[in-house]
Design brief:
Layout (H helix, E strand, L loop, with lengths): L2 H6 E3 L9 H7 L16 E2 L24 E2 L3 E13 L7 E6 L8 E4 L3 E8 L7 E4 L20 E6 L6 E7 L5 H6 L3 E7 L1 H5 L8 E9 L30 E2 L2 E4 L2 E2 L2 E5 L2 E8 L6 E6 L8 E6 L2 E9 L1 E4 L4 E7 L8 E6 L8 E9 L22 E16 L2 E6 L9 E3 L6 E8 L4 E5 L4 E5 L10 E4 L4 E7 L5 E7 L2 H5 L3 E6 L1
Parallel strand pairs: 2-13, 4-7, 6-11, 12-17, 16-24, 25-28, 27-34
Antiparallel strand pairs: 1-25, 3-4, 4-5, 7-9, 8-10, 10-11, 12-14, 14-15, 17-22, 18-21, 18-23, 19-20, 19-22, 23-24, 25-26, 28-32, 29-31, 29-33, 30-32, 33-34
Bound molecules: CU-O-CU linkage and copper (II) ion (2 copies).
One copper (II) ion binds next to loops.
């Protein structure tokens, strides 16, 4: 892998160089043309070079569910071809997409808990790829380690045991140094896990159970997606141009690949499985107007499955890679009401996300029970080891630009920063500096102790603002071997904000 990396990396004389944000901006050459949204999201806004469509005009698409190629006693078998194609994202324009089966979002894979799922990927793209099942409890050789790439014309078979509770997982590209541009071009899809416990709940089902993948993009004059890669062929030098070091933010919000879409609903409850698959943008979602009665959102699940009990929210703050499983009850709105999902962290066009139109009456026998699932609550005393990780800018450079690092060290596949024992629980203290960083751990689910949470939840990503500290209890169940943990701002990840642990 890191051939180019080894050329360009120049380690500083040791220790962490922490650039305060204000001077870091000029030092990194933020040359204007966008805001550095330090409070809400780390990054610089790319401006589209074409007129963006009117919001709330495009119907919300729902990604197709992938049919298995075959099912046998041992497993469900799927095939996906990663390829280029075009999509009409902006009305009347063709946008090139690099997608799973050529579509963005990719097809949704649906698995049953405990039933092995085998996905054979074929790479018809001009670049190497690797697929990660985000949230999967997956053996290391199938987890999509960043250097486990397969090249153009090659196939790779991923075997997923799916020995895990019902949850909203997603799959996406994870190629070393190039995850940001490859996901941006379209390599992301849902992978839902269901189980009997979830099926028994009287939550909204079928067409009232809808996945929502939120992303932001910018478009050029021909409708192509703009990404400030140093080498747009994605075959040479990795990384983005200096002014986008903090992250790439688009000015057009897409839900399931459509710009500010609209969805007609009946005056009933709906379940939405919300995923923020953006490279660098985080959102705070609010309903405008809020329902005349009751909360805007009732959360029933988090990254890795159901909560013990529902939690009411007026706003949902969702960082990159996080998932919120929520119910919205439209029954107290009058028929004909427009309900707009706003992003209260956004500005201008990125303040809007999508719209619901309460079009008709419907019948509803769903409800939200007071108890959803049995969630084991980890306690501090179970932790046998404590570790500290600081995610910040500093410790390594690239063309004179200071990189993003973990404990002052850039990613190196050979360096193991933690060696937890299989089956153990560890207390990880995570500190983030300079800008917000959403921190994701592969394989091992965790519970957030600090900052204190409204409910016990199994998470794989924790959303932290600049200067924030978190304490998480991580359970290393499943498999021995090497896995990564990293910042899920994809530009930070590509610019080295990643580290290894090895379960022993
Ligand atoms: Cu969603 Cu390592 O990533
Ligand atoms: Cu992951
Ligand atoms: Cu980061």
């Amino acid at each position: 892998m890191t051939l180019s990396r080894r050329h360009v990396l120049r380690m500083t004389a040791g220790g962490i160089v922490l650039a305060p944000l204000a001077s870091a901006c000029s030092g990194l050459g933020f040359s204007g043309g966008g805001n550095v949204e330090t409070e809400s999201s780390a990054g610089n806004v790319l401006k589209s070079r074409t007129e963006l469509p009117d919001p709330f005009a495009t119907p919300l698409p729902v990604p197709p569910v992938l049919a298995p190629l075959r099912q046998d006693a041992a497993a469900d078998h799927y095939e996906i071809t990663q390829k280029r194609s075009t999509a009409e994202i902006l009305p009347g324009m063709r946008t090139e997409v690099w997608g799973y089966n050529g579509i963005f979002p990719g097809p949704t894979i649906v698995s049953r808990r405990g039933r092995q799922t085998i996905v054979k990927h074929r790479n018809d793209l001009p670049i190497p790829v690797v697929v990660h099942l985000h949230g999967g409890k997956t053996p290391p050789e199938h987890d999509g380690y960043p250097t486990d790439v397969f090249g153009p014309g090659d196939n790779h078979e991923y075997v997923y045991p799916m020995d895990q509770p019902a949850a909203i997982l997603w799959y996406h590209d994870h190629r070393m140094d190039f995850t940001g541009p490859q996901v941006y071009r379209g390599l992301a899809g849902f992978h839902l896990v269901h189980d009997d416990d979830e099926d028994r709940l009287p939550l909204p089902k079928a067409e009232r159970d809808v996945p929502l993948m939120i992303t932001d993009r910018a478009f050029d004059e021909d409708g192509g997606m703009i990404y400030p890669a140093r080498d747009p062929s994605l075959r040479g030098e990795p990384g983005v141009t200096d002014e986008f070091m903090s992250g790439v933010l688009g000015d057009c919000v897409l839900v399931n690949g459509a710009p500010w879409p609209v969805m007609e609903v009946t005056n009933t409850r709906y379940r939405f499985r919300v995923l923020n698959a953006s490279n660098a943008r985080r959102y705070r979602l609010a309903l405008d107007p809020p329902p005349p009665e009751g909360p805007s959102f009732v959360q029933v699940g988090s990254d890795l499955g159901l909560l013990g009990a529902p939690v009411e929210h007026d706003e949902l703050q969702i960082a990159q890679a996080e998932r919120f499983d929520v119910v919205i009850d439209f029954s107290s709105y009058p028929i004909g009401q427009h309900v707009t999902v706003r992003n209260t962290l956004g500005e201008g066009p990125t303040r809007d996300v999508m719209r619901f139109v309460v079009a008709r009456r419907g019948t509803d026998d769903s409800h939200i029970p007071a108890r959803l699932a049995d969630i084991e609550r980890l306690s501090r005393s179970q932790a046998t080891v404590e570790r500290e990780f600081t995610f910040a800018r500093g410790g390594a450079e690239h063309h004179g630009v200071t990189l993003w690092t973990v404990n002052g060290e850039p990613f190196d596949p050979e360096r193991i920063q933690a060696d937890p024992e299989l089956g153990s629980v560890e207390l990880w203290k995570i500190h983030v500096l300079n800008v917000p960083h959403p921190i994701h751990i592969h394989l091992a689910p965790f519970q957030i102790l600090e900052p204190s949470q409204p409910a016990t939840a199994w998470k794989d990503t924790v959303d932290l603002g600049s200067g924030d500290k978190a304490e998480v209890l991580v359970r290393f169940d499943g498999y021995r071997g090497r896995y990564v943990f990293h910042c899920h701002n994809l530009e930070h990840e590509d610019m080295m904000m990643m580290a290894n642990f090895r379960v022993r």
